[in-house]
Amino acid sequence: MLSPNTLLQDRYLILRLLGQGGMGAVYQATDRKFGNAVAVKETFYSNEQMRQAFTQEARLLNRLRHSALPVVMDYFPSGDKQFLVMQYIPGKDLEQLLNERKAAEQGAFMASQVMQWADQLLDALEYLHAQNPPVIHRDIKPQNLKLTPRGEVILLDFGLAKGVIADQAKSTRSIRGYTPHYASLEQIRGTGTDARSDIYSLGATLYHLLTGIMPPDAMTRMAAHMMRENDLLQPITLLNPAVPERIANVIEQAMSQAPEDRFESASKMRHALRNACRNQTVTEFHRAATLTEEWGDKIPAPQPRPIEPDSVIILLDQNPSQAETPIPDEGKRRSQSRSFRKPVPKQVRRSRSAWYAVAALLLLMGTTAIMFSREGKPKPTLRGGSAEMVVMTGNSGAESNVVEPMRLEVMSYFLEVVSADSVTARATGMMPLAPDSRFKFHFKPRQSGYLYLIALGKNGRLQTFLTEEPMPGTGVTTNWSAGGNDFQFPDGGQWFMLPREAESAPFTVIFSPEPLKSPSFLAMPSGHELNETELQELTSLRKLSSANSPNLVAFVEENQPAVAAQVLADRYKGEPLVFDISIKKK
Fold first, then answer.
1. Architecture in CATH for domain 108-277
2. pLDDT tens readout for residues 450-477
């Protein structure tokens, strides 16, 4: 971390720390050449591949010019660090302002105000998506929207401290990283994103600003629909009757689960919102000062169609010969009819919450299978490997006026992967593995504690794989690990393996400084299938740990990739940590 009065490039004088994340920090500085305030992002990349990607991304953002986007002015490496200099944006982000309004009992923002911001942001998205190749932001949320003292909204955090361009061969440059409550279903599942994914995120952001309530995540909404339940996304007009119905309709269409049912472009959503604002109670709405001028005609909403449920079978067994079972093709997703969007009684939602969680986990994998592979050979030696990507799913605090809460790393992990031709490397698990790869987990808690692992068994039900009493065949005799030690699972020559027909494998990881007696199945022998009551207990444990839901941050340690699970330092009091890892196959 840089100290105040540090001088970079004999030009940029560091004044103070604005925010800090797992891969770097952001500072306010003075450009001594011109005498103006700038924001300096500091990142730590020791891997040459990521250095090159960072440089290419910096050059890409340097070419962007829009009133709702910060200007990137300079980039330079220094030792094992890279620095990006960009326009300093004063003011607070919209999440801070919304929380202040709620604390003062003023409620959500006025619709007229939100519509002005939406118009500016949609123009910015229209500009970004029109680049060649298109630029997809992938992390639009209130925390990344800064309101300047002049009342202008600025879209921040294009992922330079959060990610690198994932695939240079693709026609679209996607910035990796997302926040679940604002991310589309296809982004969460990793099936590919486009302009419509940004439209979903903007719709979710507008929903939050107009209602003061964070929208349910897309996976939970889809899980509820597959259970033949009402959409958990409550109508905006129900939560805030002051919002005109025509405006609410546009925003809710933008949040359609199926991409084809959303607006196909930011321009069309912008025109639809402007049409909705005509002859409404939002009389003070004014056109934002943006690049495009045309208003266009009203765009009819596409007709929604019913959803066909996905079919999922998941296997997890120690016998490879029995694990390779054909898996049905995944059914197509369809969007849900608006007629289903009735308020759901709280009692019903509570009774269904466990099943929603299970269904959401099933959806995350699509068609899935896992198996243990017994290896009689000596364990291969780890060799150097390259990191695939860098991801920070939380808010890095870029360009903020206020120092954000510090994050505490509770544990880190990586995958030891052996390819079909016996080449061994390390991976984060965030990028797909090659077919026929074997893998195992390496966990490193920062303090001593107890690890638990849950996944789906061969009959599609959740099953424990690491508890207080580990499976004898895993080569592990205890789920306790000393702080700073490498805890391997499985061990003793065993590996997880994805059969050829599998696409992904889900794991739920639980870490606690103290042994957990509740839920009770965590103290039982491993291999136990969870019943309905135990599923509800697992859901309750997730809720208990939700306040400390960790950010998973990929980083490079001694030129090797790993992932850190970080929590807010001022909130973490040693509660159990619960997070999910989904291993996908190419």
1. Orthogonal Bundle (1.10)
2. 999 998 777 667 899 999 999 888 889 9
